[in-house]
Amino acid sequence: MIIQQAMVLAAGLGTRMRPITDTIPKPLVEVGGRTMIDRALDLLEEGGVTRAVVNVHHLADKMEAHLKGRRHPDILISDERDALLDSGGGARKGFRLLEDGPVFVMNSDLFWVEDGPKEQNSFRRLGDFFDPARMDMALLCVPPERTTGHNGKRDFSLGPDGRLKRYRDGMDDPVVYAGAIAMTTGLLCDAPEGPFSLNRTFDEAIARGRLFGLTLHGHWLTAGTPDAIGEAETALARLAAGARA
User: Which ranges carry the Nucleotidyl transferase domain (predicted)?
Assistant: First the structure.
């Protein structure tokens, strides 16, 4: 399935990135000379996305000004200046600007470096994997050893059938949620107004046996604090050197 629309979650306060985020929103922090939100949008564009909603709150004017300079994908703004809606409430509001149907949801403060050719882009793979008949959501996941900047927490256990369960000590095949989802806009249509976390939606899908995961072919990076930027840039340089070798 080719999914051509996306919701990018970019409205957080970025408190752990202070003092940098006192003057710029976290998605505009540069890692390796490129903002994190542009790295995320690059991956979506390569995956076939032509329209993306981006929600804004903290230093929203700077976010909007930056995004106006981008031609692809087409960007729509979901304004949360009045009140933050958390990941679930933000996605629910943003979906109203998109067509009903399949959609990617992605966090704006993380990205990854792909292994292999561009036609194997992880969003294209995730779209092909997602089957709304048997899945509420398909999450892109990554083994902990293929991450940089992660806090070490194991989020899920990935079963042999692709189903995800919340990770508990001793479970097999631990994975980290890579911050990207394939789902349908209708999944949140009955959610209550106001803030709520997508974690609640994950747990509801697990209870129905309808939360699935796909393993990222690549290396996943995030930078949650000022000190972590250097770590991410070192990893990027290492990955680039390996690709040239």
Answer: 6-111
Residue type, 83: A
CB 213 within 8 A of CB 23: no
Q: CATH code at 188?
A: 3.90.550.10
Cis peptide bond upstream of 102, omega within 30: no
Tokens 């976390």 — which residue? 197
Range of the domain at 58: 5-244
Whole-angstrom distance, CA of residue 176 vs CA of residue 36: 19
- The answer to whether 122 touches 48, Cβ cutoff 8 Å, is no
Tally of structural domains, the chain: 1
Does this model's pTM top 0.90? yes
What does the pLDDT look like over 207-236, one tens digit per residue?
999 999 999 999 999 988 898 898 889 888
